[in-house]
C-alpha cells in the first residue's frame, strides 16, 4: 500500500476507533508506525490531511454514482445505488470519518463535498423527475448516512433495499408521465 494511502486510512482509523478529539498528527503517525516527520513529508498539517481524506472519499463517492449510472438510465436511481454502496462499504477511509474530521477541524474543509453535491444535484434535477422528487431522493440518502454516522437507529441493508425500491417506483412513475 502506498504511504499516502496508509496515512489517510490511519487517520480514518484514529477517528473511528478513538474519536475526533484524538485526531492529531502524532496519533496518525503512531497508528501508521512512522515518525511525525515522515507523516509531515506527505501532509504538512492536520488540515492538509483532512482535505486529502475528503478529496479522496468525495471522488470515490462520485465515482460509485457514475459507475452505477453507466448501468442505470436514471441518475436518481444511480445516486441511490452509489450512495448505498458507499454507505455499506467496509473501506476504512469512509465518508463518515472524513466529513466528521472536516467539520470538527474547520468547516471550510468540506468544500470538496459542496462542489460534488452541486454537480450531482444538477444531474438529479435534469433526470426527468420533479425537482421535489430529486431532492427527496438525495435527502433520503443523506438521512441514511446520518443514521449510520451517528448510530441513530440505522437501517439494515435489507431495509435500505426496501427504501431504494420504493423510491425507484416513484422515479419510474414520474418518468412515465
UniProtKB/TrEMBL annotation:
<keyword id="KW-0238">DNA-binding</keyword>
<feature type="domain" description="HTH tetR-type">
    <location>
        <begin position="1"/>
        <end position="61"/>
    </location>
</feature>
<dbReference type="InterPro" id="IPR001647">
    <property type="entry name" value="HTH_TetR"/>
</dbReference>
<keyword id="KW-0804">Transcription</keyword>
<protein>
    <submittedName>
        <fullName>Transcriptional regulator, TetR family</fullName>
    </submittedName>
</protein>
<dbReference type="Pfam" id="PF00440">
    <property type="entry name" value="TetR_N"/>
</dbReference>
<dbReference type="InterPro" id="IPR036271">
    <property type="entry name" value="Tet_transcr_reg_TetR-rel_C_sf"/>
</dbReference>
<keyword id="KW-0805">Transcription regulation</keyword>
<feature type="DNA-binding region" description="H-T-H motif">
    <location>
        <begin position="24"/>
        <end position="43"/>
    </location>
</feature>
<dbReference type="InterPro" id="IPR009057">
    <property type="entry name" value="Homeodomain-like_sf"/>
</dbReference>
<dbReference type="GO" id="GO:0000976">
    <property type="term" value="F:transcription cis-regulatory region binding"/>
</dbReference>
<dbReference type="InterPro" id="IPR041479">
    <property type="entry name" value="TetR_CgmR_C"/>
</dbReference>
<dbReference type="GO" id="GO:0003700">
    <property type="term" value="F:DNA-binding transcription factor activity"/>
</dbReference>
<dbReference type="InterPro" id="IPR050109">
    <property type="entry name" value="HTH-type_TetR-like_transc_reg"/>
</dbReference>
<dbReference type="Pfam" id="PF17937">
    <property type="entry name" value="TetR_C_28"/>
</dbReference>
Amino acid at each position: 500500500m502506498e504511504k499516502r494511502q496508509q496515512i489517510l486510512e490511519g487517520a480514518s482509523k484514529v477517528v473511528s476507533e478513538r474519536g475526533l478529539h484524538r485526531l492529531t498528527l502524532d496519533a496518525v503517525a503512531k497508528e501508521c508506525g512512522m515518525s511525525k516527520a515522515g507523516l509531515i513529508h506527505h501532509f504538512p498539517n492536520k488540515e492538509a490531511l483532512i482535505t486529502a481524506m475528503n478529496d479522496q472519499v468525495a471522488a470515490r463517492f462520485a465515482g460509485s454514482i457514475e459507475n452505477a449510472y453507466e448501468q442505470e438510465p436514471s441518475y436518481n436511481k444511480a445516486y441511490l445505488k452509489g450512495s448505498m454502496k458507499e454507505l455499506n462499504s467496509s473501506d476504512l477511509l469512509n465518508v463518515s470519518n472524513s466529513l466528521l474530521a472536516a467539520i470538527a477541524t474547520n468547516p471550510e474543509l468540506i468544500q470538496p463535498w459542496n462542489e460534488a453535491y452541486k454537480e450531482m444535484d444538477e444531474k438529479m434535477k435534469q433526470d426527468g423527475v420533479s425537482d421535489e422528487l430529486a431532492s427527496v431522493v438525495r435527502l433520503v440518502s443523506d438521512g441514511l448516512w446520518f443514521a449510520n454516522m451517528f448510530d441513530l437507529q440505522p437501517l439494515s441493508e435489507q431495509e435500505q433495499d426496501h427504501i431504494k425500491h420504493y423510491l425507484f417506483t416513484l422515479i419510474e412513475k414520474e418518468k412515465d408521465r
